[in-house]
Amino acid sequence: MFSIRTWGRDANIAPIQQPNYGRWPPLHIEKRHCPCQDEKKKKRRRLWTILLVIILIYLLANTTFLNVRVVTMQPSSSSSQQKPPPSSGTSTPTTLSADAQQCLSQFTLNAPANPSSYPCSSCLPVLQGVPESFANTDPQDGQSVQNAIQFCGLKAIFDSADSTGQTALGNGNWVKDIKFCAWSGVSCDGVGLVSAIQLTFPGVPAAIPQEVGSLAGLQNFQVIGNNAVPGGSLPSTFTNITSLATLHLESTGMSALPDGLFSSLKKVTTLALLKNQQFGGALPSSVTQLSLQSLIVNSQPLSAPLTTLLSSTTLQSSLLVLDLSGTGLATPIPPSISAFTSLKELHLDNNNLQPPLPALPTATLQTLSLSNNTALNGAIPAGVCASAALKSCNLHLTGLGGSGTCGSCQF
Ligand SMILES: *[C@@H]1O[C@H](CO)[C@@H](O)[C@H](O)[C@H]1NC(C)=O
Ligand SMILES: *[C@@H]1O[C@H](CO)[C@@H](O)[C@H](O)[C@H]1NC(C)=O
Known about the structure:
Low-confidence stretches: 1-19, 29-34, 63-90
Radius of gyration: 35 Å
CATH architecture of one domain: Alpha-Beta Horseshoe
Order of helices and strands: HHHHHHHHEEEEEEHEEHHEEEEHEEE
Bound molecules: 2-acetamido-2-deoxy-beta-D-glucopyranose
InterPro entries: LRR_dom_sf, LRRC69/RLP
Protein name: L domain-like protein
Mean pLDDT: 86
CATH class of one domain: Alpha Beta
Strand content: 5-15%
Number of helices: 12
Distance between the termini: 102 Å
Strand order of the largest sheet: 1-2-3-5-7-8-9-10-11-13-15
Keywords: Membrane, Transmembrane, Transmembrane helix
């Protein structure tokens, strides 16, 4: 082996001293040339060539290495990003790829002072590729990886907002720093995952961005818009938020929820859809598989037949609050309503409900509101008037009851 010094000295000489090729002797002479002298020359020439190649490789490797370290990562590098090594049990330490390392140090070193310029578009996919086992190897860097992912999920909401929206969000500290748990409308759980987002116009995005799907700990997502924004549809990545328990969309310009949404989001217990005029009436059929506690569709069309909703045995046992006010209901209330054995509140105001009024789950019902259903007439089921549980009963603008009193009911 060469010592480094000899190597370096030879390397310095190499580019200057041209190998002496001379004039090639005629081919037939070369064949008879003394092999010993020729071999010496050949050996030297080969040595020079090898040295030259080694130097070139060394220089090339150096340049590449420096480039990777110094130059800001280009978005395209994420596509050429090699997959992190598959986690092979807890015993093998997980290391970060060069790109992930770069994204991590940019987040910890540069992002605190300059949060808006953190390259989420290239770093989010890279950091999402870091295996979970990495946090076991290096808990501190693991936490930083998770923080960067959460930061980018939220920053995408900010980036989607128009200038008025960004001003409003900025007033709540959005993307002013990387301490996103303290941004207004954002809550985190005990391990630093974003657990709740509550956005109110004008601090709303133009559309819910794909990156929201990276907020894996999100339990509560609430957006109140201005009927136009946010628009578009829920991003396909929304099905990733499997911890979601509450989805509240109000006064948005969004289109209908994807039909299979709740095949993925099985933990949703509160679904509140209010005044979303672009929804078009359809409710995901998968909603009947949910153990919902609250189902609120209010002041927007509902085309799903009441009989379908109310025949779900899952909903029958789970539902505490049912509010389908102002949804254009124009049928009788199906008798299956009496099978809702946990129901505490029933709101069906501002519809065109038809008689007769069936037996209601009066053992549990505390609030009954059927106001402004002018076609609803006839007798009130005896259980309603005699109920000890019923605290509030609004039958204003209905044809029910006629004369006399009926428990807590107001006519
Ligand atoms: C959603 O989940 C899939 C697989 O479950 C994953 O490949 C993808 O990166 C996730 N997307 C986001 C935005 O988190
Ligand atoms: C009664 O309900 C209808 C919709 O069925 C609505 O258009 C109307 O404004 C409501 N009236 C009152 C007084 O709330």
